[in-house]
Design brief:
The complex is a heterotrimer of chains A (about 290), B (about 375) and C (about 450).
Chain A: H1 2-32, H2 39-57, H3 60-83, H4 91-113, E1 128-131, E2 134-139, H5 140-162, H6 164-174, H7 176-181, H8 186-212, H9 220-233, H10 238-259, H11 264-278
Antiparallel strand pairs in A: 1-2
Helix pairs in contact in A: 1-5, 1-6, 1-8, 1-9, 1-10, 2-3, 2-4, 2-8, 3-8, 5-6, 5-10, 6-8, 9-10, 9-11, 10-11
Chain B: H1 36-57, H2 60-86, H3 93-110, H4 115-136, H5 142-155, H6 158-162, H7 164-167, E1 173-174, H8 189-213, H9 215-225, H10 227-232, H11 237-263, E2 265-266, H12 273-286, H13 291-314, H14 319-340, H15 344-357, H16 365-368
Antiparallel strand pairs in B: 1-2
Chain C: H1 5-27, E1 49-56, H2 63-66, H3 69-82, E2 90-97, H4 102-115, E3 120-122, H5 127-139, E4 144-147, E5 163-165, H6 170-184, E6 190-195, H7 198-210, E7 216-222, H8 230-238, E8 243-247, H9 250-262, E9 268-271, H10 278-285, E10 305-308, H11 319-331, H12 341-360, H13 366-374, E11 398-405, E12 408-417, E13 427-429
Parallel strand pairs in C: 1-2, 1-3, 3-4, 4-5, 6-7, 6-8, 8-9, 9-10
Antiparallel strand pairs in C: 10-11, 11-12, 12-13
Helix pairs in contact in C: 3-11, 3-12, 4-5, 6-7, 9-10, 12-13
Chain lengths: ~290, ~375, ~450
């Protein structure tokens, strides 16, 4: 029983990490209708920036803040310089451009920082918490991660639903031409969407990199699972991203714990296909399933 | 909306039967064109002769590179047809290459069939795998389909780790082909590999070219351009989509067999996620929906990284850094080509050709698809 | 007909003297002659250089740590080059990036052999990657020396006669660790944590040969692309494992330790050589340690038991460590590469190669190098002898057990030597390790 509890809590804390990535993907999708395959790589870059600051100043939270700022700037820069010109082209071009960014950013990190694994500080202590004598298997850092992700998800949901900025972002994604006619500054909204997603990605990087250690390819595995979580939850809603992350995290945790490490990916695929066969647009999508 | 999306116009002499000339030449002069299949076979035979001569003249290493390009070409061409013609995305064709590769290795080790039969059998198995996945994913579109294929690419090779004793796990399965006796004792292995892979690649290209110009190909394009309209026009959308997946999976499977022939072993590391991503980038880089584009894309995929690494070393950059330079460069090339030439390389070449002929690009759509 | 018998004798004698003179003059061009000129005796060998090639993961998921090995070997080669080279020839080491992808490995090795014409393939890294090219290398009759992988598969004199391993293979290592555990942790519950590839599985195979089945309570594997290993650690804890043996790479050893902290689970940790380098581990755990003890390490690696087949980096008095520290300071420190287990590995295998090349002779053919290794090599930097013979292409045959104390590996036992069969005995090797040559270069 204790084992089951531990697996569940571990799944939840892993799921929060996947949800962090999923949130940034959802944000970009809802805002700009592009899937950013370079999201993980960009988070890796901002984590390197944070590490440089932390090592120089000894101050973790300063590095944290710099990472978030770097994420904002990087997201905006990428959109403005590279993604903008793909807006009126076939959507697959934007996909390839983001893949090109993924490859280029990882390669650049390798050349600048070498491929060595670097230790990355967590925000809070990583020694286990326990209730009485029962070790829960989660740490203060895991709780901080969960709180940060939930807060981010909540903020995004609120922004999209209740603020005019959120409305304009959604309008831009839904139909840029009409939005422009209605007075929305489409270009600015695109940049804003990517900047916010960059910030979220940087947050995800800061939360997960202590566990992956920092190297040019450190975000690859987590990104694939975060992407899966986003698809499971439906790319349309932040709530879906969190739910998708939790479901995936817990399923993978039980698989690894009861059945062994080699089947984890297979179970992930099974879970994904199961969800998609029932709801082709993810769990929390509002769009009706297309009948074929 | 995807590139090459102008409506297809039937080429003269293809499917339209025209009145006899004597009746009045209101339509203008007719050019007789041989039937499609014969035309494609003709090109293939010409290609085979040219390749046969070229590989004989080139060094062993160049022959080996040609063999590699041919192996990837089949998979890239299949993917290009899937995405460019039927509008479905797949970041998972590496998984189908794995199916083809492992199937061929298993048959080779346990049943010892002739190599050609193995290639056909493995292609068939991959086609079945494509049908299964296509059926499961029939209702998925856009990013959801992308996500499903992405995880397929990641998860399927881990079957090899799970069932160690069958698939050889990390070590993989040996697939050492040797030159068949009738070619002579001193026939180089690299040249045999080049001939084998190019032979199958040409065959696959002929079949794909026919498919592109057939009714199925037209139906795919209709599906891609407007799914609802196609469905209203009476096309069975799901069946068409699954058929597209079957074709691309079969091509990927054949590519997997050819890759196994070239490399000599089959292991999970050959079919990592990066392979699927490379296939996708090669297909789009070269030009979607176009077989010539698949050739450009595969050539760049195979030849550019090692060329860049060698150049980097000879420029004096440290070997450690030279390992990373081709990677950055490939990323930059992808971005640059996509921004400057949205139709990929073949799209750019078509435009150049059209500009040279001073005709609108649209007229040359069908030429671009051979 | 010439004249008398005496004149004929003089003619024959003169002819004989001429022949001897001619033979003496032509002798200087044959290989192996003393004081002879250097010739291009094989592909990759010129009068001035020996070119060798390798495939290494310089980028990608396998790169962390392993990308230091080739530069370290190259540093040793540069040292040798600047001190006379090998019979006056300089070693040119061309190592190409294969991103740990067997398909790219095949491409670069084809290039190295067919286009660049290297003399030998040296220290190709990785089991799946090298398996993809070993048959090709052998079919071209190119020496494939000192593969950087602990797979037993390099000992295959029938199908891969030109391929030689170097490091202690994982089955042997598992046996040595297993035997130590069986003796020192009698009755305790043992759990395994291992990478789900041939490295981890061979290690577990070796461990299982020595540890009684009744003691093994849990076997948990991990996939190196998935860092969420908490469930496996929880499973080990639930099974009550008091000793956890880990065949993991350094990143996952560190993660194992971190997850144990998270679960408040503190079994005795026994780690295989690959994943236990104290400097790498300390580096990875640096951000988590509460107190950094003076010197190299920190509290999180304290007490980890491991094995090693090379001298410990902490043994500052060991002649090999002194030599390699000197070489490191000159060639690698300026490049900001840390002096860790990977660098020691790279220099050590480079040393073995130079030994083999000296033994191969002044104008060696490719077969000369293979014969040199088949004839056996002195153990050099390794703590145990090599197994090299014409019937055995395995490398180092043994290791010692030690504990990490204050960030440094401290030996607890002597050197154990064994083979990789289930029933092969584990014996102690009491021959002291030879000291490094004063010049740092093996004697020809």
């Amino acid at each position: 029983m204790v084992e089951f509890l531990e697996f569940t809590l571990e799944g939840v804390s892993a799921g929060m990490i996947y949800a962090a990535i999923a949130l940034s993907l959802v944000l970009i999708w809802r805002g700009t209708r592009v899937l950013n395959y370079a999201q993980g790589a960009m988070a890796m870059m901002t984590s390197y920036v944070a590490l440089i600051v932390i090592n120089h100043t000894g101050n973790y939270w300063l590095g944290f803040a710099v990472a978030l700022a770097a994420g904002l700037i990087l997201g905006a820069a990428v959109e403005r310089i590279v993604i903008r010109s793909t807006v009126d082209k076939p959507p697959l071009n934007a996909v390839i451009v983001t893949i090109g960014l993924l490859i280029g950013i990882e390669g650049l990190a390798g050349v600048l920082f070498t491929s060595n694994n670097r230790s990355f500080p967590p925000a809070y202590s990583i020694s286990g918490l326990s209730v009485g004598t029962v070790a829960l298997g989660i740490t203060r850092n895991d709780i901080f991660t969960a709180v940060a992700v939930l807060a981010a998800a909540g903020l995004i949901a609120l922004t999209f639903r209740y603020t005019s900025v959120g409305l304009r972002l959604r309008a831009t994604a839904f139909n840029a031409q009409v939005a422009r006619l209605l007075g929305v500054r489409v270009g600015r909204m695109l940049t804003l969407g990517w900047a916010l997603a960059g910030l979220l990605g940087a947050l995800a990087g800061m939360l997960v990199t202590p566990s992956t250690f920092l190297s040019p390819n450190s975000m690859d595995g987590v990104f694939v699972l975060g992407f899966t979580a986003a698809v499971i939850g439906g790319l349309e809603s932040p709530v879906g991203a969190v739910a998708g992350g939790l479901i995936l995290g817990v399923v993978l945790s039980y698989a690894a714990g009861y059945l062994g490490g080699e089947v984890v990916n297979l179970f992930g695929l099974a879970a994904l296909m199961l969800v998609l066969m029932l709801r082709p647009n993810g769990l929390f999508s509002s769009a009706p399933a297309r009948r074929v | 909306m995807l590139p090459n999306d102008l409506p297809e116009r039937p080429s003269a002499g293809d499917t339209v039967s025209l009145p006899a000339r004597a009746g009045g030449a209101a339509r203008g002069p007719l050019r007789w064109r041989p039937p499609t299949l014969a035309r494609h076979l003709g090109w293939a035979v010409l290609g085979a002769i040219v390749l046969g001569l070229v590989t004989t003249k080139l060094s062993d290493f160049r022959d080996y590179e040609i063999a590699q390009v041919a192996a990837y070409l089949v998979a890239v061409a299949g993917l290009s047809v899937l995405i460019g013609l039927s509008g479905q995305i797949s970041i998972g064709n590496g998984a189908f290459m794995a199916v083809g590769g492992y199937t061929s290795a298993l048959i080779f080790i346990h049943l010892h069939w002739p190599l050609v039969v193995i290639a056909l059998a493995a292609t068939a198995v991959s086609a079945v795998a494509g049908a299964i996945f296509g059926f499961a994913a029939a209702r998925l579109r856009g990013p959801y389909l992308a996500g499903a294929t992405l995880l397929l690419a990641v998860a399927l090779p881990s079957l090899a780790t799970r069932f160690q004793s069958v698939f050889g796990g990390d070590q993989g399965l040996g697939f050492f082909v040797s030159v068949p006796g009738f070619l002579g004792v001193s026939f180089s292995l690299s040249r045999y590999q080049a001939w084998f892979t190019c032979g199958f690649a040409l065959l696959a290209l002929v079949l794909l070219a026919n498919l592109i110009r057939s009714r199925v190909g037209r139906n795919w394009r209709a599906l891609r351009d407007d799914e609802v309209a196609a469905s209203l026009a009476g096309l069975n959308v799901a069946r068409l989509q699954i058929r597209a997946f079957v074709v691309s999976a079969a091509c990927a499977g054949l590519g997997g067999v050819l890759l196994a022939v070239v490399v000599g072993t089959v292991s999970a590391g050959l079919f990592a996620l990066s392979l699927s991503i490379q296939l996708l980038t090669a297909a789009v880089l070269g030009g979607l929906g176009s077989l010539a584009g698949a050739v450009w894309g595969s050539a760049i995929l195979v030849l550019l990284p090692s060329y860049l690494q060698n150049q980097s070393i000879s420029l004096g950059i440290s070997q450690a850094k030279s390992g990373g330079v081709p990677i950055v460069a490939y990323g930059v090339v992808l971005i640059a080509v996509m921004l400057i030439f949205p139709g990929g390389i073949q799209g750019a070449l078509s435009r150049l050709y059209a500009w040279g002929r001073r005709r609108p690009a649209g007229d040359h759509q069908e030429k671009g698809s051979t | 007909m010439i004249g008398s018998h005496r004149e004929r004798l003089a003619a024959v004698a003169g002819l004989a003297v001429l022949c001897m003179l001619a033979a003496a003059c032509s002798n200087s061009n044959s290989s192996g002659g003393n004081g002879g000129a250097l010739t291009a005796s094989a592909p990759g060998i010129t009068a001035k250089t020996i070119t060798i090639g390798s495939h290494q993961p310089l980028t990608g998921i396998a790169a962390p740590g392993y990308d230091e090995i080739a530069p370290a070997s190259n540093a040793y080669f540069q040292y040798v080059n600047s001190h006379g080279g090998i019979y006056g020839r300089k070693i040119v080491y061309k190592y190409l990036n294969d991103q740990y992808n067997p398909s790219i490995t095949s491409t670069v090795v084809h290039q190295l052999i067919l286009q660049d014409g290297v003399y030998a393939i040296f220290n190709g890294l990785g089991t799946p990657t090298h398996l993809a090219v070993a048959p090709f290398i052998n079919s071209e009759h190119v020496p494939d020396v000192f593969v950087a992988s602990g797979c037993e598969c390099w000992n295959n004199t029938s199908s891969l006669p030109d391929t030689f391993g170097w490091q202690l293979d994982y089955v042997r290592e598992g046996k040595i660790l297993g035997s130590y555990i069986e003796q020192h942790f009698k009755g305790k519950k043992i759990g395994f944590f291992f990478q789900d590839d041939e490295f981890g599985q061979d290690g577990v195979k070796g461990l299982s040969y020595e540890i009684p089945k009744s003691q093994i309570v849990s076997e948990q594997s991990y996939d190196p692309t998935n860092i969420k290993i908490a469930p496996q650690v929880a499973a080990l804890k639930a099974a009550g494992a008091q000793v956890v043996v880990s065949f993991s790479v350094p990143a996952f050893t560190a993660l194992l330790k971190l997850n144990m902290l998270g679960l408040k689970y503190a079994p005795q940790l026994v780690v295989s050589d690959v994943g236990s380098d104290p400097i790498t581990l300390a580096g990875l755990l640096a951000s988590f340690a509460k107190n950094k003890t003076a010197g190299f390490g920190n509290s999180l690696t304290q007490g980890i038991i491991t094995d090693s087949y090379l001298p410990s980096l902490g043994q500052m008095s060991n002649s090999w460590i002194t030599l390699f520290t000197k070489i490191y300071d000159t060639y690698l420190k300026p490049k900001k590469i840390p002096f860790d287990g990977n660098v020691l590995y790279g220099m050590s295998v480079g040393y073995t190669f130079v030994q083999a090349m000296f033994k191969a002779g002044k104008n060696p053919t490719r077969q000369d190098l293979i014969n040199a290794v088949n004839g056996g090599l002195p153990q050099g930097v390794a703590v145990a002898p090599f197994a090299y013979s014409s019937s055995d292409h395995n490398g180092i045959t043994g290791a010692y057990i030690g504990t990490i104390k204050d960030g440094v590996l401290v030996a607890d036992t002597g050197v154990y030597v064994t083979d990789d069969t289930a029933s092969g005995a584990i014996t102690t090797d009491s021959t002291p390790q030879p000291a490094a040559p004063a010049s740092g270069i093996p004697k020809p």
